[in-house]
Amino acid sequence: MRVLLVEDDALLGDGVRAGLKQAGFAVDWTQDGQAAKLALETEEYALMVLDLGLPKLSGIDVLKWLRGANLALPVLVLTARDTVADRVIGLNAGADDYLIKPFDLDELIARLNALLRRSAGQVTLTLQHGDIELTPSTHQVSKNGQIVELAAREFSLFHELLLHAGRVQSREQLEQHLYGWGEEVESNSVEVHIHHLRKKLGSALIRTIRGVGYVIDKESA
């Protein structure tokens, strides 16, 4: 899942980016509101982590612009402003969740996973497809009750396809979810990950729509 991190504190931003990448997220990091707005206009994200006290354009203004543009991107606000009035302002401007600095990285990741579940209309803590189960909070996948070891990007790719089962996604769309700015993308990387997932989870799980992309079909009711 690709996340836009908007934080002007270099030390904190670097730590959060490293922690999110270790948890399997692809992270783009900007340090002011104008850069965040440009990124949102040109890239596709699953989530945004947004500081409020930003240079050039405040976090509140970024939120108001985002919602004014009818973009439904889930937003978690990170801020040192801990009064009730500040939280009300942020939530009324369009934030989906709020975390006060200093914070625990594990809590941030748990809240992001919860936002992903809600945005996808998922009410359970796991994603199930036949005999395969994916648990985002622990980054585990099992088949017939047995843990299947997946590399970080294999897990992210499988999570993205399973979260949107029934929706065909192109190679370019999947690359957008897997890689952040500055990360080298080999021309056949998605195909390689798909090949590994099929070997580990079953050859029929991920279907290729020739000339279009890849899809995990929805299970019949």
TrEMBL record:
DNA-binding interval(s) = 124-218
Q: Which InterPro entries match?
A: CheY-like_superfamily (IPR011006), OmpR/PhoB-type_DNA-bd (IPR001867), Sig_transdc_resp-reg_C-effctor (IPR016032), Sig_transdc_resp-reg_receiver (IPR001789), WalR-like (IPR039420), WH-like_DNA-bd_sf (IPR036388)
Keywords from the named record: Cytoplasm, DNA-binding, Phosphoprotein, Transcription, Transcription regulation, Two-component regulatory system
4-aspartylphosphate: modified positions: D51
- Gene Ontology BP annotations: regulation of DNA-templated transcription
Q: Spell out the Pfam families in the cross-references.
A: Response_reg, Trans_reg_C
| Domain Response regulatory, chain residue ranges per copy | 2-116
One Gene Ontology cellular component annotation held by this UniProt entry = protein-DNA complex
Subcellular location(s) of the protein: Cytoplasm
Q: Which SMART domains match?
A: REC, Trans_reg_C
Residue intervals of the OmpR/PhoB-type domain: 124-218
**One GO molecular-function entry:** phosphorelay response regulator activity
Q: What is this protein called?
A: Two component transcriptional regulator, winged helix family
